[in-house]
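Budget justification aside, the reviewers requested a transparent look at the raw inputs and outputs of the sequence design task funded under Objective 1. We therefore reproduce one unedited record. The lines immediately below are the C-alpha cells for a 487-residue chain.
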C-alpha cells in the first residue's frame, strides 16, 4: 500500500511556539550535579562551575526555556538555602531522590548563570507544598526587583547588582501528589492565594503557571479552570510514557520485546487524546485560548539501568525514544493553538535525556538528534495535512516558516517494512520543485549511542526523494524519524 497525504500549504493553523522544545532539569540523581554543575575546581573544563561539553551540546540545540529546580524537589526546596557563599550553604537530604546529600551549591545564581550561558528563558518552579506565601513572594522579589528592598539588597550582597529577567514562574508542582497530596478545590484556593504575591516588578511581567492534572485527571482541569482561570496564564499537564504493566515494572530502556516497543508507542500517542480532552475542558472556560497548556513533564520512564541508584532514575536512550520524541513533538505541532510550552524530562542523565555523562565523557542520545532535526519547526506555522490513507505506524506534522519553506516530519514506528509515501502538494503559489531530507534510524530497535560507540545513531541524508507535478514520493524505512524540507 502507498500512503497518501495532502499537504495544504495555504491552510495555516497556529504558530508553533519555540517553547515546546523546552527542557526540565531537577535536583535529581546526576542531572544538576555531575550532569550540569561540576564546580569551578573540577578537572573537567567548565565555565564558572558549569561543564563546557554539556553547555555546548545544549547551546547547539538552542533550548528555549529551562524549568528548575523540580519536579517533586521544588515543593521541598527553600531557595534561601541556595544563596550566599557556597561553602556556607546548608547541606540537606534530598528526600525524594535517593536520600543523598544536597549541598545546595547549585542555587538561584547558578541557575540564572546557566540560562544566560544557554540563551534560554528561565522557568522557576516555586514551592507551595512545604513553603510559605512569604517565601515565594521574597524569591520573586530577590530575582526581579531593581529598587531598594530587603531581598534586592540581599541579592546585591551576594554579587548580583541588577535583577534578572524572569517570565515563567510555576506555583507548585504536582500538588495532587508529591507537592502536597491536595484536592483540586484546595489547591485552586491556595493557587489563588500564592499567585497574588507573585508580583510584577518594574518591566518584569510574570507569566503565572498553575499546577495542572496528572495524565487523565480531567476533574482537576475542570476545577482549576472553573475556580482560577482569571488568575493564571497557563495550566500544566504531566504524562510519562511507561510501557510496563505497573509502576514497579516499567520495563528496560534497552532490553525490550517488540510488544513493549508497540506498547511504548501506544502510550506516547495517548498524549494526543490527553491534550485534546484537557483542551476541550479549557475551551469551555477560556474560548479565546488565552491560557496555555504547558506539558512541563513528558518523556519515557523505564526501570533504572541495572546497578544504578533506583532514586536517580538513570536510563539509556534508544531509537525507540527518538520515535517517542518525534511523535510527541508532532502532536504538539498539531495542537499548537493551545500547547505553547513543553519540557522534556529531563535534560541530562535522568529519564529521557538528550545528553548522558560519565566522568568527563558525554553522549548525545537519539532523542537529542530528534530535537536538533525538529528545530526547523520552531516559530513556524503549523499547516494542514489531510491523511488520505496513512498506515497506523506513521505519524506526521508539517509547518511553514517565515521564508515560505515547508518542513514535513514523518515518524515511522513500524519495525519491519519501509513505507511508500506520496505527498500531494497543494496551496503553493509556485509548486516546490526541490526537496531534501534528513533521517534518524538504527539497525535494531534498541540501537543507541554509548560511551564506547557514541555515534552509532546519528542523522543521515534521506535518499530517494522525488518531486514532480506537485507530488513528492519517498520510501521511509522502519524505525525512523525524518524531516523533509520543501522549497
Ligand atoms: O521527573 C521526575 C518526577 O516525575 C518529577 O520530580 C515529578 O514532578 C514527577 O512525578
Amino acid at each position: 500500500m502507498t500512503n497518501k497525504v495532502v499537504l495544504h500549504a495555504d491552510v495555516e493553523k497556529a504558530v508553533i511556539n519555540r517553547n515546546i522544545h523546552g527542557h526540565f532539569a531537577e535536583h535529581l540523581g546526576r542531572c544538576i550535579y555531575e550532569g550540569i554543575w561540576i564546580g569551578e575546581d573540577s578537572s573537567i573544563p567548565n565555565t564558572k562551575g558549569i561543564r563546557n561539553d554539556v553547555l555546548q551540546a545544549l547551546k547547539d540545540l538552542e533550548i528555549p526555556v529551562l524549568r528548575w529546580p523540580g519536579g517533586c524537589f521544588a515543593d521541598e526546596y527553600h531557595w534561601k538555602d541556595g544563596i550566599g557563599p557556597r561553602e556556607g550553604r546548608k547541606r540537606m537530604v534530598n528526600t525524594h531522590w535517593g536520600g543523598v546529600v544536597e549541598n545546595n551549591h547549585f542555587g538561584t545564581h547558578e541557575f540564572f548563570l546557566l540560562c544566560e550561558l544557554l540563551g534560554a528563558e528561565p522557568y522557576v518552579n516555586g514551592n507551595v507544598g512545604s513553603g510559605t506565601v512569604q517565601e515565594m513572594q521574597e524569591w520573586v522579589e530577590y530575582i526581579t526587583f531593581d529598587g531598594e528592598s530587603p531581598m534586592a539588597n540581599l541579592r546585591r550582597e551576594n554579587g548580583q547588582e541588577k535583577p534578572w529577567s524572569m517570565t515563567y514562574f510555576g506555583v507548585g508542582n504536582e500538588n495532587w501528589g508529591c507537592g502536597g497530596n491536595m484536592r483540586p478545590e484546595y489547591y485552586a484556593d491556595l493557587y489563588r492565594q500564592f499567585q497574588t504575591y507573585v508580583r510584577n516588578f518594574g518591566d518584569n511581567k510574570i507569566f503565572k503557571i498553575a499546577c495542572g492534572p496528572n495524565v487523565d485527571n480531567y476533574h482537576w482541569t475542570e476545577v482549576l479552570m472553573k475556580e482560577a482561570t482569571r488568575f493564571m496564564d497557563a495550566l500544566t499537564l504531566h504524562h510519562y510514557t511507561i510501557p510496563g504493566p505497573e509502576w514497579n515494572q516499567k520495563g528496560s530502556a534497552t532490553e525490550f520485546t517488540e510488544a513493549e516497543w508497540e506498547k511504548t508507542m501506544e502510550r506516547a500517542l495517548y498524549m494526543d487524546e490527553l491534550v485534546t480532552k484537557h483542551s476541550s475542558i479549557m475551551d469551555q472556560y477560556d474560548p479565546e485560548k488565552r491560557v496555555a497548556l504547558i506539558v512541563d513533564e513528558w518523556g519515557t520512564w523505564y526501570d533504572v539501568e541495572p546497578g544504578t541508584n533506583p532514586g536517580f532514575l538513570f536510563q539509556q536512550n534508544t531509537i525507540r525514544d527518538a520515535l517517542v520524541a518525534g511523535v510527541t513533538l508532532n502532536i504538539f505541532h498539531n495542537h499548537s493553538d493551545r500547547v505553547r510550552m513543553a519540557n522534556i524530562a529531563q535534560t541530562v542523565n535522568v529519564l529521557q535525556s538528550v545528553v548522558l555523562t560519565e566522568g568527563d565523557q558525554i553522549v548525545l542520545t537519539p532523542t537529542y538528534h530528534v530535537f536538533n532535526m525538529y528545530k526547523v519547526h520552531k516559530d513556524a506555522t503549523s499547516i494542514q495535512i489531510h491523511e488520505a490513507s496513512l498506515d497506523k505506524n506513521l505519524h506526521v506534522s508539517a509547518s511553514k516558516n517565515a521564508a515560505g519553506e515547508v518542513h514535513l516530519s514523518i515518524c515511522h514506528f513500524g519495525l519491519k517494512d519501509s513505507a511508500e509515501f506520496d505527498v500531494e502538494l497543494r496551496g503553493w503559489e509556485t509548486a516546490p520543485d526541490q526537496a531534501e531530507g534528513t533521517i534518524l534510524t538504527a539497525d535494531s530497535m534498541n540501537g543507541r549511542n554509548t560511551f564506547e560507540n557514541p555515534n552509532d545513531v546519528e542523522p543521515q541524508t534521506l535518499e530517494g526523494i522525488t518531486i514532480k507535478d506537485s507530488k513528492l514520493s519517498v520510501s521511509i524505512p522502519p524505525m525512523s524519524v525524518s524531516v523533509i524540507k520543501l522549497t
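The longest strand covers residues 2-15. The chain is about 25% helix and 30% strand. Computational costs for records of this kind are itemized in the attached budget.
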